[in-house]
Amino acid sequence: MDEIKNPYRPGAGTPPVSLAGRDDQIKKATTLLKIVQAGGSDRSLMLYGLRGVGKTVLLNHAEEIAASLHFHVQHLELSEKDDFRREIAKTVRKALLAISLVDNLKEKAKRALGILKAFTLAIPDGPEFKLDIDAVLGTGDSGDLNSDIVDLLTALGDAAKEAGRPVCLFIDEVQYLEEAAFAGLLASVHRINQKQFPVVFICAGLPQIAALSADAKSYAERLFEFLPIGRLIDTEAETALLGPAKTQGVNFTDEAKDFLLAETEGYPYFIQEFGKHTWNAAKASPISLEDATNARDAAIVSLDDSFFKSRIDRSTDAEKEFMKAMAQIGTGPYKMGDVAKQKGVLVNSLGPVRATLIGKGFVYAPSHGLIEFTVPQFDKFIRRHFKI
Ligand SMILES: Nc1ncnc2c1ncn2[C@@H]1O[C@H](COP(=O)(O)OP(=O)(O)OP(=O)(O)O)[C@@H](O)[C@H]1O
Ligand SMILES: [Mg+2]
């Protein structure tokens, strides 16, 4: 069928035509924003889930809701290499300038800009901001990331309250935050809530962010509500698959639908990719099982090139060998002992590679002694890619 009218949209953060199965999370975000807008406070949100389940799409959706409620919004996407100090400094600067009238700076906004200046002065080769304001020395410039972030974000909160403008910060790929920065973020939310400042955070990341130690977890859970974002089930997956075609009067036979739902296992990225290729392969409505099976190979090639391959390319040889051993065992989660046996080494010797794989976001530990890929069906990809 007409490729130009293809309603499926595989891509990082690309909004789907049918945003299926996320009503609860959208409601939670909307309620939180309305509470803060009304002068109250509640826990910020932390969305977590595997690659391609739709975390970024949800963040972007919540951002639109926040903007429609007259929040000032800022979006921050972290990467492995980013220095959080620089990123948060740039974000806070933009927020401060947006919520204050620059030619008529109020007291708290001036102070916040002064703290921002002190904060950036403490960053080696820090970003050069042309801020015609004196640094508030002694605040936000201790060099201790945790407490400096608290100073900076609390000053932003103070300025937001003074300006009567709520602020929502969206932070994506939050698993890349180093420990001190994560601790600083938590402590900032704590302080901001105590002071009832109108600042709220909606963050998203891989499942490793939920794997905190018991103490750290109970503290984090008082400040953030952790919302798992999973694969789509039953009617949700059906809506995601059938909904986009339906907007153009196109249907699927039951056999085609069942085949595609089984292949994609309800993972949003896969539904978009298989939907796209099946649409292109079909001649007319209803889309048949034959269309879907004909499109399968093209969908897999496309997934390998876009979704999977870019990820494996970021791993070292030792990391690849570790992941190959996982995939050789079958589907996960995997016992570390089994991975060691597969490689013919002692479990302890795998510690360093395991740690870098978690740090890079390839794998996470669902529970003690277990390891699993953060990318759905990554084991199948590795077996295809390395011809295991
Ligand atoms: N609820 C949904 N219903 C249908 N399709 C969805 C849904 N959520 C996301 N998608 C589609 O899935 C794909 C991946 O979405 P997104 O980039 O938001 O995932 P992600 O969880 O942020 O992935 P990553 O961890 O790789 O950043 C996109 O093509 C998007 O259109
Ligand atoms: Mg994302």
Could you walk me through the main structural features you see in this protein, from its secondary elements to its overall organization?
Helices cover 53% and strands 10% of the residues. It is α/β, with parallel strands linked by helices. The protein folds into 3 domains: 23-228, Rossmann fold (3-Layer(aba) Sandwich), CATH 3.40.50.300; 244-311, no CATH class; 314-385, Orthogonal Bundle (Arc Repressor Mutant, subunit A). A hairpin with a 5-residue loop joins β7 (363-364) and β8 (370-373). It is globular, with a radius of gyration of 23 Å. Bound molecules: adenosine-5'-triphosphate and magnesium ion (MG). Residues 12-13, 55-56, 172 line the site of magnesium ion. This is ATPase.
CATH homologous group name of the largest domain: P-loop containing nucleotide triphosphate hydrolases
Major sheet characteristics = 5 strands, parallel
- Through-space gap between termini: 36 Å
Number of strands: 8
The CATH topology label of the largest domain is: Rossmann fold
Q: What fraction strand? A: 5-15%
Structural class: alpha/beta
What sequence of helices (H) and strands (E) makes up the elements?
Answer: HEHEHHHEHEHEHHHHHEHHEEH
Number of domains: 3
* Helix percentage range: 40-55%
Number of helical regions: 15
As laid out across the biggest beta sheet, the strand order is 2-3-4-1-5
What general form does the structure show?
Answer: globular
Q: Unreliable segments (pLDDT under 50, ≥5 consecutive)?
A: none
Bound molecules: adenosine-5'-triphosphate, magnesium ion
CATH architecture of the largest domain: 3-Layer(aba) Sandwich
Average of the residue pLDDT scores: 92
- Report the top-level CATH class of the largest domain: Alpha Beta
Specify Rg, calculated over alpha carbons: 23 Å
Domain Orc1-like AAA ATPase: 19-202
Region (Disordered): 1-21
Organism: Herbaspirillum robiniae
InterPro entries: AAA_16, P-loop_NTPase
